[in-house]
Design brief:
Blueprint (H helix, E strand, L loop, with lengths): L8 H4 L9 E6 L2 E7 L5 E6 L22
Length: 69
């Protein structure tokens, strides 16, 4: 079976051993997969948008820290 999805394999088939702190949130009308870092801020792991223009925005590149506003 072939599964076409923008999500990474570990999100589609989560491992029961992995206690990841990743969550999917909507930030400025864009769905993003984020992780909480040590400072308590959210760091982008993956952008899940269907709009190709969103991927050109450096604000949503993996590793970017989201502002709280």
């Amino acid at each position: 079976m072939i599964l076409y999805t923008p999500m990474v394999e570990s999100d589609v088939f989560p491992n029961q051993d992995n206690s990841s702190n990743r969550v999917i949130i909507t930030h400025q009308n864009r769905p993003v997969c984020v992780e909480k870092n040590q400072e308590g801020n959210y760091q982008i792991v993956q952008l899940l948008s269907t709009d190709p223009k969103d991927y050109m925005d450096p604000q949503y590149q993996p590793g970017a820290v989201l502002s709280s506003s």
